[in-house]
Fold this protein.
Amino acid sequence: ALFMENARKGSIVSRANSIGSTSASSVPNTDDEDSDYHQEPYKESYKDRRRRAHTQAEQKRRDAIKKGYDDLQAIVPTCEQQDFSIGSQKLSKAIVLQKTIDYIQFLHKEKKKQEEEVSTLRKDVMALKIMKVNYEQIVKAHQDNPNEGKDQVSDEVKFNVFQGIMDSLFQSFNASISVTSFQELSACVFSWIEEHCKPQVLRDVVIGVLHQVKNQLY
């Protein structure tokens, strides 16, 4: 009985050892487990660093865009808030861009207008300089010959000469022109010019008027 009991216990121990060895063989190598344990956190930290760098770059880009819009809103006068009822509410990006475009177009028009005004002023200055030179020459000529111009006729005499010439021409014009219709008026005007506005006719009219004015003066 003792021999049988020892044999049974030996069989149980043998089976236990075989089961333990089988279970141990199914368990992964502890060295590989340690290696995987150290390698997996390294992969995750690399991804985290890439994700963090991308997030920082994206945040910088957004901050730069926001700063650009804030600068535009501060520079462009039309972007200033006019309605105080909305408080601190900001303009949308689309409105800021549109107001900026409108303001730039306004500045271009103002610049073109100012350039045109400057060009006009330069022409005026040039004309005034020419007039100044002419007047200086006239003054100098008068100073050199103070008696010159005393016998010149007045503006009234020149007007009388012009009036006499126009009166003479109007008399012939009134006697020759018919106003029954526009077609007849046009035909009469051309015939009057060909007949009464010849150089010789005008010369005789002017000579007659000058003689008349001369007789009135002297």
Observations:
- The two ends are 186 Å apart (CA to CA).
